[in-house]
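Database export, one record per block. Field names are fixed; values are copied verbatim from the stored entry.
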Amino acid sequence: MPAISVEKSLVDGRISIASSVSVPDILESLESISVEGADILIPQSTIDEVKNTFPLNSFFRQLIDESELSVYGIEESELPTLLISEDTIHFRILLGSVGQLVDVPRDREFEDLVEQFDSLATEATVAQFDTPGWETILSRLEEEVGENTRLEFERLILAAHLEELGALDEVSVAVIAAAQSGALQYNLGKWAEDIGLASKATISRRKSNLVDDGVIVTESVPVEVGRPRERLHLSDDVQRVEIAEAPDGRELDVSMQSRSDREDLKSSEPTKADDTASSNPGETDSEPGKESDILATMEKEIRDVLKSS
């Protein structure tokens, strides 16, 4: 259940959020209520955390753009969690791990609270999020790299819960998603750099790590001008790519074929001799006539050597 869910609309309302409310809870709460045009006060430390956590920053940016929110960062450490609508003020009371919203009518005695909110918002810094919204990121990925990469990237990212996304290695997810669809590393790096996910150099290093781990392989693709580019592919040894449980949340899980499985598969493959025998069942490995000629030649050479000595 969202931390600050209310049934009433908060269109053009005022919201302040305490530092004790986690970023995933903030997102879940704001998505659960009507907040179009609202002013929101958030501790600057929380805003900094949002900016540095992908994809939560893109989810937040999309919510801001869609709902036309005004978000302000404030250094006030004791900011309460409250929601002010046209006729009601909702206070969040927290006792231990239990939080509850208490509603009071927006009477004259609470107008000082509203005025103080507006004063803090005026003095606060408007939060700017450079990361594009989530849907924009996905559409750019499809344009730059391809639809299959977009679908796989989206599948893997959304497989984790909101509270687990901060621990996810999104760069590896992007590289593996591109490898599953056979995309060019150059296109992936350009997309990642454009949206602020990672630099082209970071994408290249992560690709190299995954190559060393046997997860992906590369194919050189010539271009008309410049050096060849690398196409990414998943290794044949990769059986499955999922988001799995981990001690600190969820992580990218790549299931590889074991060495014994590879050896069993190799031993079950027909050899060249088997292929020859099966295609020419009437023939043996050597013909008697040829074998006798070879032996006669060898004997003659040996006799010649002995005579000369």
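Remark 1: The chain is about 45% helix and 20% strand.
Remark 2: Residues 277 and 283 are 7 Å apart (CA to CA).
End of record.
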